[in-house]
Specification:
This protein is α+β, with helices and mostly antiparallel strands. The chain has two domains: 172 residues, Endonuclease I-creI (Roll), CATH 3.10.28.10; 125 residues, Endonuclease I-creI, CATH 3.10.28. Helices cover 34% and strands 19% of the residues. It is built from ten helices and twelve strands. Strands 4-5-7-6 form a four-stranded antiparallel sheet. Helix 4 crosses helix 5 and helix 8 packs across helix 9. The longest helix is centred in the last third of the chain and has 16 residues. The N and C termini lie close together (7 Å). Mitochondrial DNA endonuclease involved in intron homing.
């Protein structure tokens, strides 16, 4: 029951096998599979029968498998690279009555993480997946009433940063639409980061596992690190510093300001020592990643072991080979961790 490796030289457009059932308000309420293509030319072994089994059969509607602490993971994803949009007015200012405006929650995924977003959409059972124009990314959007209720119930009380302000506005909207809805505004999650999968979701969105191999310089160097960056302010003007300080404190590092000269400066957290990398490693062994970064993490963890054993120079050729196939250089993917 292992998903075949996917060669991402393939255009994911041919893997877009959904149709959306749209009601009068034009909000997506159901996602159905409608057709299958012969993918043998681009993804050998990825048959229609396999896709159907992977996407439909292995996940009962009530299941959140394989996710640990799904609500916290989703909250981390949204705070890392998501947007909570609440329109300022119920109708647009166009002629006549105007078009109805609806709140929406959007999460951006790299194109190579399509299997992950497909599984999340299967679990939540609401929303739409769109290819972002002129970008290697998909946007998962939920904007119908029932879908918003489900997602808000999952992440309510799991948010750790300034996006709680927008979430509370969505809760106000939902309670206005459904007065009998039992949904209270819960405070920020201030529990230790090691208690749930929020950080895993945040890393899924913004983290980067890095290996340094400077072998042709006068003093050859090997290094292993992890970086996590976030814009200094959210689109609504709130600072992300508190969030980044919390992460830095957990990892035993400091927050640095980068790209100060650019229009959108960022905060960065970086681990580079065995001690700080080990803190991250131990956390991700308990609360894993589920997108393609899971593969980068596994490669990174293997190299970290060599550093812990002080044997990295004995394995320099292997480390160089692993690095050459990580991150943007990865072309073959396995998704058995989603099964």
């Amino acid at each position: 029951e292992i998903v075949p490796a996917l060669n991402l030289a393939v255009c994911w457009d041919i893997f877009f096998i959904f149709k959306y059932t749209v009601e009068d308000n034009q909000q997506v309420t159901l996602m159905n599979l409608i057709s299958w293509w012969n993918l043998n030319d681009c993804a050998p072994g990825l048959s229609a029968e396999f896709i159907q089994k992977f996407y439909c059969s292995i996940l009962p509607i009530s299941s959140t498998r394989p996710f640990v602490c799904l609500g916290s993971y989703l909250a981390g994803l949204i705070e890392g690279d998501g947007t909570i949009i609440v329109p300022s007015s119920q109708r647009s200012l166009s002629a006549g009555k105007g078009k109805l405006n609806y709140p929406s929650i959007q999460i951006v995924f790299h194109a190579k993480d399509f299997p992950l977003v497909a599984i999340l959409a299967r679990i939540i059972e609401h929303g739409s997946i769109f290819k972002k124009k002129q970008s290697a990314a998909y946007i998962y959007t939920i904007n119908n009433l029932q879908g918003l209720i489900i997602l808000v119930q999952l992440i309510n009380g799991k948010i750790r940063g300034p996006k709680i302000n927008q979430l509370n506005k969505v809760i106000d909207y939902l309670k206005n639409k459904s007065p009998d809805l039992n949904l209270e505004k819960l405070p920020l999650d201030t529990s230790p980061l090691q208690n749930n999968s929020w950080l895993a979701g945040f890393i899924e969105a913004e983290g980067s596992f890095q290996i340094r191999t400077s072998l042709t310089t006068k003093e050859p160097r090997l290094g292993i690190s992890f970086e996590l960056s976030q814009g200094r302010k959210t689109r609504h003007g709130y600072s992300s510093l508190g969030l980044m300080v919390m992460i830095a404190s957990f990892l035993g590092v400091k927050v640095n300001l980068i790209r100060e000269e650019r229009k959108y400066p960022q905060y960065r957290v970086r681990t580079s020592s065995i001690t700080t990398n080990k803190i991250l490693h131990d956390y991700l062994e308990k609360y894993p990643l589920y997108g393609s970064k899971n593969l980068d993490y596994k490669d990174w963890a293997k190299i970290l072991f060599y550093f812990e054993q002080k044997s990295q120079w004995k394995h320099v050729d292997e480390i160089s080979k692993i690095k050459s196939q990580m991150n943007q250089y990865r072309t073959v993917f396995r998704w058995d961790h989603l099964v």
